[in-house]
Specification:
This protein is of the alpha/beta class. The chain folds into 2 domains: 42-253, Rossmann fold (3-Layer(aba) Sandwich), CATH 3.40.50; 294-381, no CATH class. It is built from 11 helices and 11 strands. The chain has helices spanning 8-37, 59-67, 107-118, 131-137, 222-230, 255-275, 293-306, 310-326, 335-344, 349-356, 364-381; strands spanning 72-75, 93-98, 122-126, 143-145, 151-154, 166-168, 174-177, 182-186, 191-198, 201-206, 234-238. The strands form 2 sheets. It has a 9-stranded mixed sheet, sandwiched between helices. The chain has a two-stranded antiparallel ribbon with strand order 4-7. A hairpin with a 2-residue loop joins strand 9 and strand 10 (201-206). The chain starts with 7 loop residues before the first helix and ends in a 5-residue tail after the last helix.
């Protein structure tokens, strides 16, 4: 029967899982130890987040505004749930959305942004935005490309470019066509910063959000542009798009991605069950076969003897002895062939006479003795013990 212990695949999977768990624990312990040794606390956050001290986050922008006396705050809830003028966001604020990542706006979120702009709000966008958002805010959406210039200069003078000569970045984003927007900074053929009005408000869209990251905000005139975009207003950094607040990061994962993750998890679970421990009664590895011929003959002969038919039982044992002598595939079982086979196996003349005799017309006791003797001969030539 099949063992209920883990299969080889199950043991391998268990080793992998245990190894992965140990690796994760060790990684976190080392990470905590390194953090404890650092002179200043570092906070990792997604790209564009005003919470992070890592190179691609933008905490330095928030600290720069604080140092200059600007009021700043963070928004950690869906835009659709924000009541304008409630203190969290008003039409006299500048709302900053940088590198939204997996965030997918709902129609109600876009409606709230339109309401915010029509009332006079200022919206600063950075990096690639969801198509739904751009389609809802721009009459003609700009054409976005990832291969942009590392240095951009002023194309059209405006309040946000006042005093700015050039800005420097990694060149991770650019507009090949500004659409219905006006290009404010870029080069001869591409636009890095564009502007568009909506109602009484204004949209400023920076294709490469990294120019305001902790790594690049100190380059060229990047910091001055970041201050000018605030427009002297309170700045609200939208951190909900980075997974802060609400239901966390999972809330920002697109629905199709969530389905894929669930299906992958289900497939992994099914595979673990398939190769792991089986539950319930053990299964038989093979079906039960008829008993071996020697066992079968002994059993049947014993039954016939107990049934007071020793001559019939002896006949069964005798035929089994013939098969043992001649082989299953041999057709010639004549008297001469049997005698020759018996002699070649070393049987005595009395034994030969016993196994080739067709009938015994003697007393019942004699038939029982012949049965025992014939059975012993069968055991001897088949290699058994009797």
């Amino acid at each position: 029967m099949r063992s209920t212990t883990l299969t080889a695949e199950g043991r391998m999977l268990r080793r992998w899982l245990v190894g992965a768990a140990i690796a994760i624990i060790l990684f976190n312990l080392v990470n905590l130890a390194l953090r404890a040794l650092r002179p200043t606390e570092e906070v990792f956050a997604p790209p564009g987040s005003s919470y992070g001290t890592n190179a691609d986050a933008s905490l330095a922008w928030d600290e720069l505004l604080d140092a200059l006396g600007f009021r700043t705050t963070r928004l950690e809830q869906p835009l659709s749930t924000v009541q304008l003028g409630s203190g969290r966001l008003g039409t006299d604020d500048t709302l900053v959305i940088m590198e939204p990542g997996f965030w997918q706006p709902e129609p109600a979120d876009i409606d709230r942004l339109q309401e915010f702009l029509e009332g006079g709000g200022r919206l600063v966008l950075g990096g690639q935005m969801p198509d739904e958002l751009i389609d809802g805010l721009f009459e003609v959406p700009p054409t976005y490309d990832f291969d942009g210039p590392t240095t951009s200069t002023v194309l059209v003078g405006s309040e946000v470019t006042e005093g700015v000569r050039s800005i420097t970045g990694p060149g991770f984003g650019v507009f090949d066509d500004p659409g219905s927007g006006i290009g404010l900074m870029g080069n001869a053929s591409q636009v890095l910063l564009l502007a568009q009005s909506l109602g009484q408000g204004n949209i400023f869209y920076v294709a490469d959000a990294a120019v305001f990251s902790n790594r690049f905000i100190g380059e060229s005139d990047n910091a001055l542009l970041a201050v000018n975009l605030a427009g002297g207003r309170r700045v609200v950094f939208d951190e909900y798009v980075h997974g802060f607040g609400g239901e966390g990061f999972w809330q920002n994962v697109p629905g199709r991605w969530q389905v894929m993750i669930w299906l992958l998890g289900l497939a992994l679970l099914v595979w673990m069950v398939a190769v792991g421990r089986r539950f319930g009664p053990p299964e038989r590895v093979r079906r039960d076969l008829p008993p071996e011929r020697r066992t079968y003959v002994d059993s049947l002969g014993g039954l016939m003897a107990r049934a007071k038919q020793p001559e019939a039982a002896r006949a069964i044992v005798q035929r089994a002895t013939w098969r043992e002598l001649m082989g299953r595939s041999v057709v010639d079982r004549s008297r001469e062939a049997l005698i020759e086979a018996a002699v070649s196996r070393g049987l005595e003349p009395n034994d030969v006479d016993l196994i080739i005799a067709e009938e015994r017309h003697e007393a019942r006791r004699r038939s029982e003795e012949d049965l025992i003797a014939t059975d012993r001969i069968l055991a001897r030539i088949s290699g058994g013990q009797k």
